[in-house]
Amino acid sequence: MDAGLHYGLAAWINGLRPTDDFVNCPTLPTAIDLVDLESIQNMDDLAKAADFARLTNFIPRQSGPIDTATNLWQTHYEVLKDMEFATRPWDGEDRAAYNAAFDLLYLTDELGFRTRSEQLVLYDEYKRALQDAETSGGTPSELHQAVTDWIALGHKLEIEAAMATMNRLTLRSSLTLAENEKNSLEAPDGIAFRHQSDRHFAPVYFSPISAVAKETWMEANVKLSDMDVAAGKTHYAGPWRGYRSKKEATVTFKYTVLDCSRSWFSTELYQADDWKLDEDHGLAAAGDGKNGKLPAYVHSVYLASVENVKVEKIRLRNPKPTGKIRLVEQRVAYAKLNSLQGHKLRSAKIRRGAARYTSKAIVASKPVLQVARTAEFAKLSVGGHLQQLTAVARQNRFTITAQLLRGRGLPVVQPTGRTTNHPTYVVGYGCRRLPKAPDPNPHYEW
Fold first, then answer.
1. Using 50, 70 and 90 to split pLDDT, how confident is the model at 29?
2. pTM of the predicted model as reported, rounded to 2 decimal places
3. Strand (E) positions, 292-334?
């Protein structure tokens, strides 16, 4: 992927999101080989999971560069350690309700590691399928079916009831939750940590887990000019303009948004009003996404795989040069055009050949994903066209999720004549501000 293109891709993807998350981007697009913690099979997978955790646990600041020297699990631990709590204990009924809700959302394995429950994984999977169907212009009947599936198969009502219970009790008294997270993050042997070689890391899960299969990603065709509006609203407007310069092109790419989940980091704690820090420890967050020890956190990761950049024109600096000057500028423009297109454009014949493989590769013990009808592309208000999520494609996501949850690996992919072997890059992060914290209630007893 060309350096600089990732600024426009990240801004455009963020513009599709129904949130006010701000964008942070790496200086260069970061190559990644994706694996989910629920799918770890060997030490190589563990190393990939460790890399993902380290990529997503920096402390973002709005309108500032990425600072990889900061670390979310260490900073969160420092804040937890310095909290002073008001005296407002739960009664026995409250504690029982909290524990029941927690046990529905999370599991603790034999080594003490906390992981997401199968119900929570499925909840997130069906929720994302609905969101993508809405974004890509699904019909009312398709959206109705997606909601019905979420309720019937994605444990929507049970999970949201458990979340509401935990949120209600945490806002009443955050002491228990804070103590649990602080103890789990006591390095290097706290139960929140996994170990990879001689290093430890606090794991980051993501949804949807079906995104480990690139066949589930959304496909888009977007002009560079369509990315301008979104990129211009970020502090990457300057670098983006430097990349785009005077060229116009249509970018064909596949993308996915991974929503991060951390069992050791509860944002509800930063909304609670029953704790404070003494003056020496300052603010945990100022509420502006910029100031404080922990002003924001990485909520989402934007992954993209560029399939083609079709350059349409390159405007010359002087539109009407004459003689030798015109000839030289034409040659320069032609050379730029070739360098931009040459290694990206593939003939249909090569694509068809790369996608074919023999039926002997199909393993009988694994399901074969259905081939969806050719989906139409919906024109978006933010600019560009997005391939619609069909019912078959949605069902394929659920098939992949079920296989991963049962440790059976990815299903066999039916050949469709399209290649998906383009590299995957982290192009940006959706970052969410924390509210002003602490914000202690002056009417409590301290």
1. very high
2. 0.79
3. 296-314
